[in-house]
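Changelog entry: the DUF1983 domain-containing protein record was regenerated in this release. Current contents:
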Amino acid sequence: MSIFHHHAHTPHDKPDNLRSSQILSVIDVISEGPIAGLSHGLKSVLVNGTPVLGPDGQVNVHGVSMDFRAGTADQPTLSGFEASAREKLINADLTAQYAVTRTVNGKETNRLRLTLGVRQLFSVNKKGETRDASVTLQVLVRQPAGWQTEKDITVKGCTHEPFAFSVILDNLPPPPFDVRVKRVTPDSTDNRLHNKTFWSSYTEITDVRQHYPYTAVIGLKIDSEKSGNQRAQRNYQMRGRLVKVPANYDPVTRRYVGPRWNGEFKEAWTDNPAWCLYDLLSHPRYGLGKRVGIADVDKWALYNIARYCDESVSDGYGGQEPRIRCNAWLTQQRKTFDVIRDFCSLMRCMPVWNGQRLTFIQDAPSDVVWTYTNASVAGGQFHYSFSALKDRHNAVEVRFIDPHNNWQPSVELVEDRDAIKRYGRNLLKVDAFGCTSRGQAHRTGLWIIETELLETQTVDFCVGAEGLRHVPGDILEICDNDYAGTATGGRILATEPERKMLRLDRPVTLPAEGGATLNLISSSGQPFTASVTGHPEPDCVEVDVLPEGVAPLSIWGLKLPGRRQRLFRCVAIRESENGGYAITALQHCPEKQARVDEGRRFSESPASGHAVLPPAVRHLRVSVSMASGHIHAQARWEILRTLISARSEVRVTRGDDGTGSLIVSDTVDRPEYAFVLPEAGHYTLTVRSINEAGLKSKPVSVDITVAAPEAPVSVDVTPGYFQVTLVPHQTIYDAATRYEFWFASAQLADPQLAETQARYLGEGTCWIKDGLRPGKAHYFYIRSVNALGKSAFTEKQASPSEKAEDYLAFYKGKISDTHLGGELLNKMEQLREGAAKIEEIQKSWKDTEGRLNTRWSVRLEQMKNGQYCMAGFGMGTEETPEGIQSQILMAADRVAFVNPASGNSTPALVIENDQIFFREALIKKLQAVSLTSSGDPPAFKLTPDGTLTAKKADISGTIHAVNGVLENVVIKDNCIIHGQLDARQITGDIYNVQSGGINLPRGAFSWSDRGGLHVIFYIAGETFERVLDTNLTVTAECRRARQQFSLQLKSGDHFEELYRADTGNKGKLPGMTFRLQGIRLPAIGRENHHVLMMRIGNSHRSSSVYCKPPAGESPRFSVYREGKAFITGGSI
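Regenerated structure tokens:
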């Protein structure tokens, strides 16, 4: 027979030691210069959607350097960009059989950079271990003399990811020339060797230093190794061109200095669309400056429009923002009129050539310029047309660039719910040009809705020379008698200035209540409004003020309180065939602006429960793993099927620096996303679904912890029969965290020694340990495990269930299921009345399943008067699924143990009626639900809820109590209180301070002709020695005669002299000055007092004694136990 012994081997993989390290150098042309530049330096540079620097200056994307030029005429070259490079992609695999050749045609190429690489590079030995591998490549250039080898490259190492590297060729022939790369190492045919190679690209490099005059450029260098080897998509948050703005205008505060503008300009950055348009129209290099010219643009009209755009309105979030701002980047060549129209649509205006210059008509409230009546127009008729219902939109989707969406497009939905209910939904989709504000986008959509729903009429009419009194864009008042159904306008026949009365060309009807106003034309040709104060005749009215120059046959218009003033904006003036002018005007509602500017208050949650926003994503989860030294995260979630063409917005922010720095921002079409985290730390992943309309759902977030996990903060224990179930928990649930379980039968001195002194059970999210003894403490050591490491151990003590009744029921089933138990407890067959039977069984057999069993048993049965009685005893062994089981069973009404040798028939133990009776027992360990002593009432009782009742207890060990009540207790030794002591009265060794209620005379104690002892104050006694400190000073003096003073302390029957003083002959000596500090008070008991006294020697001398604190202080006393020093001195 041969015996083989096999040692298990765990493969050890070699970590990757090859990483791509390439520098991406790119020059981005931003704009025509000069420009203001980046808004916040590198914080405004985004690489793959992530700012290079966070708000606090912390680096988010490592390995990035930048150089910026604003676009001036004489700007220096970019530092570090001394060459111009043009890269051409190849993406071809290199094999030993086929080389790859490319032709370089760049005539000014000075150098060539080849980017080569390996897909993977490693080998696996017979033990399954990963080891280094190598591969050799060769680079050849066709020189005039033929092919010449320029580089022999050998790559050696280990990597499971693509590894790219660069090769520079300097010795180049005149172009065009050929470059060839071939593989020297044979191709791998073994799946244990991975060494595929590729040629990614080549770059033609021309050594040249360029200044890029009048061009704003950014030179960016990105280290691929430090930035995660991702494709570098670049975005910049810029402040654009410096344009001409009024000299009295501050673009930062948007304030205009002075009452008027003198027409002068200065250069500054601004996002006011009026001055951005003026720059495009007047600039000679990239605008219309050579064709239109500065004099051909109405700068005064743009000045008024600019002030209108700068006015503050609600931003929808409780703050204020400018009414209109322009943040646009024009990157394509477009038709001039299309660009002008985009700017004008942004400013709510239209471009108009008035015959002399290019001016602009803005749809904003303004004063009435002229009034037209039936008497003013040819034929006395106004011709109206109305917009079609299909052109009256009541829902608008406004697409704008959203800074809160990482500068990606968002859609703002604006609706008129009442109009939708009445006419049905009529949707319009628009792009808000230059809009980066949600509030401005909402106002844009609301302006369109209000304009199309309120301003539905167009009026056409012909007039004479009056048509020259206004220009397109002016507000006109139309007083149409036919439309109003009453006389609202006409001509004045005569005036009476002294009575302020006007005779009209037709009778008018004035309302009984409410004031009417009359619109007139003054001598200067300006409209004037006067209040009607009287109506003496049907065609005569009296006014409060009659302006000078109101001539007969001039126009009048009547505004009645119950009728709305009809205003129109002139949009066209044309010469008619009869020498007059044809006017076209569009209905104007001045209240529209207030309705739009009030806008709407935005909220993160919808105002109703209807499905306006798309539903949020569900079951968002993240898994984190380590590969090639990088932290890879994989996020997955679910989207409801009700969404059509749903996309998802993914954002990852840093959560451990308090700034919420943006790490990743992207929009994906699938419910999963893989990304790389820069370093260990805490992050937050937020996902929102986006529907086909561009609306976003509520955000759903999950925290990501990239670190060794924290130790379990708690462990839930569920006891069972001979087993326990352990469920660890952490502060924040992490699905990627599992737990290691270790077991020890005794408690370890240090939980961190579990690896060497405990038994490893396994790894999981919970654990069930069986085979445990009830009533015994077992110790478990648990630690958290994830891809980044392991935590410290947490100790948990656990025991199986200790309920005796449950174990008895458990054993009942166990016993009845065995062969011995079943045969011992079953009745014998055919046992007759009055019969008895004895049965002995001894056998060994195999059951139907082939398991071996042995049994010996004795049974005695008897039947009397229908009562069955049985006694039995049995022993046996059986094979069970858990193993071989032996047992001894007894069955009887009474079981007793008697020692006949002692001559005493009293049993030591009796079991009857499910009870056990002991005469005397010596028990090492007793575990019981409750304990009760004999007696009525019992002297001792312990209930299951932990209540202990005892008439008397003598405890010489340690007592640990959480709470309770102690009455009349004497503590004979030291007592330490760690928490708060709350007492109504404390007497004894404490620090006593008294500063109030001390009666000391304000002046001096004067004793004339009174020698002997005089009491100053009393001090309560104590059972231990103390020290007295005060802020008092005792002073005694006798200035004219000799006197002796003695300051004494009487403690019980003991006298102690504290200080003695003698004033000398005729009182020439200073007397006594003594500070009452550090006076020892001996123990005299609490029933006695200490007395501070002054003894005066000569009773025939007038003496003065003072006892007082420093000036401005009250008397203060403190008493504390002697020997409690808490401050000691040291050397200096």
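Residues 438-454 form the longest helix (17 residues).
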